[in-house]
Amino acid sequence: MKIELFIERIAKNVVTAVSEMYPDVEVVIVDPSGKLIGTTEKYNQAKNNRAYTPYIEELLRSDTPMIIDNPRDNPLCQGCPNISTCYQTLEISIPIHIENNWNGYLSMIVFSETSKKFYLERTNQVITFLQTILDLMINAGNSETASIKYQHITNMMNIMFQHLDCIAFSCNRNGDIQICNDAFYEFFGLDSAHEPPNIYHFLTGDSALLSVLDNSVTFNHEELPVVVNDKMNRMIVSSKVIDDNQNDMTEFLFFLRTLDGVRQYIASDTPQENALDCILGKSLTTAELKSKIRQFAASTSTVLIRGETGTGKELIARSLHGLSPRNKQPFITINCAAIPDTLLESELFGYEKGTFTGASKGGKAGLFEIANGGTIFLDEIGDMPLHLQAKLLRVLQEHKVIRLGGYHPTNLDIRIIAATNQDLEKLVDENKFRSDLYYRLNILPIKVLPLRERMADFDDLVFHFIVKYNDKLNKHIIGIDKAFLQILKNYSWPGNVRELENTIEYAVNIAEASYLGVESCPAGIINENSAHPQLTLKEQLKFEESRIIQEYLDQYGSQNNSIAEIAKLLGISRASLYGKIKEYKL
Questions:
Q1: Are 352 and 404 in contact (CB under 8 A)?
Q2: DSSP 343-373
Q3: Strand pairing class (375-379; 350-351)
Q4: Which of 172, 448, 168, 489 is closest to 314 using CA atoms?
Q5: Residue 545 exposure: Cα atoms within 13 Å on the Cβ side
Q6: Which is nearest to 148 in space by CA: 2, 333, 348, 358?
Q7: Range of lowest pLDDT (84-88, 110-114, 183-187)
Q8: How many Cα atoms occupy the beta-carbon half-sphere of 61 within 13 Å?
Q9: Model pTM above 0.70
């Protein structure tokens, strides 16, 4: 509620109270439009519910208290429609300014010569009295407004808490619960029909959560033990302290997830659309690949995906998960080559608190635990260190995992999909990969052909990426020149589909025409296609010219003085060289 609305609401009560204390005095509150919002009914009728506008304007313009001791004769009263019936003898007024957007005034009016004389001799006290009334009303209005705002904020926070997908609650330093969601009641076994109890009633004295209240400790996604009803729960805890330097006003926010809740959260964040539809191509090879994926998806056996880099091995793994009965559970992926050996073990298997320096206070769940019930995808499995291969083999055989520094195993219901671009058989012969792990992983093998061996899908892929980057880059490419397409088909594609996508993204970015032409082709691909019988002589000459200019630019640079030197060596003008650099997008 705005403060001016509050004043309007209580004005009549204030006036009535003053009038009862001083029967020969009328206190009047006038709003910015001249309406009498606080007065007795008798005075309101005498004034026809309105004050005289010129008087209001002069009072607010001067912005100082005003004393009218000669009503009817005062120039400000001339023209007032009530002048002939006015019976007041004195009016003392003070202006009201609230937040620079509400301007009115507060007056004390008397009606006898005796009272006029009495109050004229005490003008300063009257002005102080009026200012006190005004201050009391404003302060009361501010308090009510603040209370309403606080209640509004509390209601908003309640709504937000209810929509959080975790256990959420706030409390003060004494542990009194202020706000909580339904998940809070459910987890702690409390009746939501009753007021939530004090936090100390359901947490033990050594709980890590209580350290937040006692010492203002904060946590950010820490794994901590929380004991409820004599049952220890491992939870991911975040806490925030809102402190205004007054201990009694400090608020503590808590957000908790059980490990099962974390798994469900990750599963809900995993795209559930059928990744199989993202495997593009209509060739027999692609059709057979999709058929194998559908067949293997229903199984719980381990899958080993083999293929060069950039062939879409993770997309195949996501397809297997998306088509499996586990598709509502987490899909966790980890690149074994991208994480240092010293961290990979703790990432996969987790650790108990105090296992090593720098470890999280309450320990940490490993990815196997988090993925429990779902699928874990171990990419670049050929780069996994030998000592971890032994632990992985044990997980595969026993379906259990033990954290570093721990003794108690956690049962696992998990499917493992592994992928590699390496020759695992060769690594086995070189004693760089365990043979028993290789056989355990290679139960359901999937071989992904490189792009150069499935060119029947090439056109579909090219046009798919053109459409994709048209949308992403707000471009309007409608096709590709035959010559450019042939150049792409002649290339060896060591990076496979990923490299093709990057090439099309580059071409769409720099294309100025509505078709992708050879001028949009990256220099590296042009260099490999410098001479091909499928191209016309003119096209071959342009490729060779582009390659030569690029070599000079690489050697001498592209500064103005370098351009002059290159033009001299090539026997052409600088203008011609600049034109060719622009033409070939070098």
A1: yes
A2: HHHHHHHEE-TTSSTT--TT-EE-HHHHTTT
A3: unpaired
A4: 448
A5: 20
A6: 2
A7: 84-88
A8: 6
A9: no
